Recover the amino acids of this structure.
């Protein structure tokens, strides 16, 4: 019959509903287990991140006596300040110098003494030593270390990276579970239902805020992963090798190059970490710090820069700056004998992707747009902590005694599409891929073969 449409059979409709149910239950199961396992790490990232956003204000308050000096006109040459530090701490080696960026800001000389790194604060007008801090005791540095690697070194870095990757999975699975099935229903979708029972309210306080901040969460996760030791390092290397992030280097003259990477000798902006470091021509007399600072002034480097001293006779002076705004980033290499500027690497030299990444990182740190950036970041971090808390409470109140409370697992054949998505995600984020294999092995060879565990996990 012309114009007729073949109608689905009752069996086809039933199978479709069953597949949809299996897909939904599987996502819910993954969301629950990923949330329970990684919730502590995500909570730590949220709390430490909310604190680190206000590093400038906190350190200004904590170290005011070390930071602030009286403006007395002309500052002394940096060499005199370093001579005072060297004479005061004769058994130390100077590794970095940071000139005060304002007339009322002290200068900083970083020294290595007995295998400990200290920051010595010096009055730039009188060369008086104001004080000294062991860098391992600087509160915000420890918070940053806890935020980035749980103070566990490489192991902690991998755990944080894995938690961040799984947080992405939590966001996407959560959005699917949140997505309204009834298009006419908006309460409990975009605003919580406060006039309802506690169970429903708790669900809304978990799902609704998560929806509103989900885009920012994804942004923070991706920009945070750029600093990770595994995925981030490989993305940096890929950007360098393909030239999509920034040019390999900018040379003045025919300076030779070394095999070192900038990140091996200094903390520099992300886009410059894998830049080849040019080497100095070995001569007898090293350039004075006064000359290095003068070169930095002539190059108009953002005033919060650090001078990193060469570690070898072939090394270079490196000027590195982490400014509030990405456009002011700079990494400069100077021949330690001649003073020649071997490389002058600026934000405008980045390719579009490199610029986007640099901008994203300063935004992640709460610097790009000042106080408003910090406030928005703080609200999102507290929101993430709240989502983790409400999710845990909701699970604890709902779970039956002696069980995890997750939906029953389904056969892989019913979720082929989801398995493909997970496989792709595992390839993009290798640590996730490894964790998926580990979970699969544990599930197949242990959980499903031990009756008590099979019952507990509803496998």
């Amino acid at each position: 019959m012309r114009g007729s449409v073949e109608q689905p059979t009752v069996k086809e409709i039933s199978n479709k509903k069953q597949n949809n149910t299996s897909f939904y239950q599987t996502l819910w199961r993954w969301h629950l287990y990923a949330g329970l396992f990684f919730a502590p790490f995500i909570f730590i990232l949220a709390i430490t991140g909310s604190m680190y956003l206000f590093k400038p204000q906190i350190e200004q308050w904590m170290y005011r006596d070390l930071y602030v000096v009286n403006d007395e006109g002309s500052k002394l040459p940096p060499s005199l300040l370093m001579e005072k530090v060297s004479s005061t701490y004769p058994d130390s080696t100077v590794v970095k110098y940071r000139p005060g960026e304002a007339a009322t800001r002290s200068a900083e000389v970083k020294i290595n003494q007995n295998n400990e790194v200290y920051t010595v604060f010096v009055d730039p007008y009188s060369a008086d030593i104001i004080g000294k801090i062991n860098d391992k005791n600087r509160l915000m540095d420890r918070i940053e270390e806890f935020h980035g690697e749980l103070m566990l070194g490489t192991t902690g870095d991998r755990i944080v990276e894995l938690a961040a990757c799984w947080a992405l999975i939590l966001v996407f699975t959560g959005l699917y579970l949140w997505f309204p099935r009834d298009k006419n229903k908006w309460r409990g979708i975009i605003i919580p239902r406060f006039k309802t029972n506690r169970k429903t309210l708790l669900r809304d306080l978990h799902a609704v805020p998560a929806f509103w901040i989900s885009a920012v969460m994804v942004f923070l996760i991706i920009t945070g992963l750029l600093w990770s030791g595994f995925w981030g390092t490989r993305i940096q290397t890929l950007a360098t090798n393909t030239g999509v992030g920034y040019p390999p280097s900018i040379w003045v003259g025919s300076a030779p190059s070394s095999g070192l990477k900038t990140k091996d000798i200094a903390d520099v902006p992300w886009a410059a970490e894998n830049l080849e470091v040019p080497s100095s021509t070995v001569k007898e007399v090293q350039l004075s710090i006064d000359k290095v600072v003068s070169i930095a002034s002539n190059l108009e480097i953002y005033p919060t820069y650090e001078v990193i001293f060469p570690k070898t006779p072939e090394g270079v002076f490196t000027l590195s700056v982490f400014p509030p705004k990405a456009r002011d980033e700079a990494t400069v290499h100077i021949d330690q004998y001649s003073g020649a500027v071997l490389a002058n690497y600026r934000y405008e030299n980045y390719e579009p992707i490199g610029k986007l990444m640099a901008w994203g990182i300063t935004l992640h740190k709460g610097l790009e747009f000042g106080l408003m950036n910090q406030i928005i970041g703080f609200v999102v971090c507290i929101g993430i902590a709240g989502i983790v808390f409400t999710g845990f409470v909701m699970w604890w109140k709902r779970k039956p005694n002696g069980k995890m409370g997750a939906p029953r697992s389904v056969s892989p054949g019913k979720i082929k599409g989801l398995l493909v998505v997970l496989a792709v995600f595992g390839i993009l984020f290798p640590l996730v891929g490894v964790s998926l294999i580990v979970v699969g092995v544990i599930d197949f060879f242990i959980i499903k073969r031990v009756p008590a565990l099979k019952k507990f996990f509803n496998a």
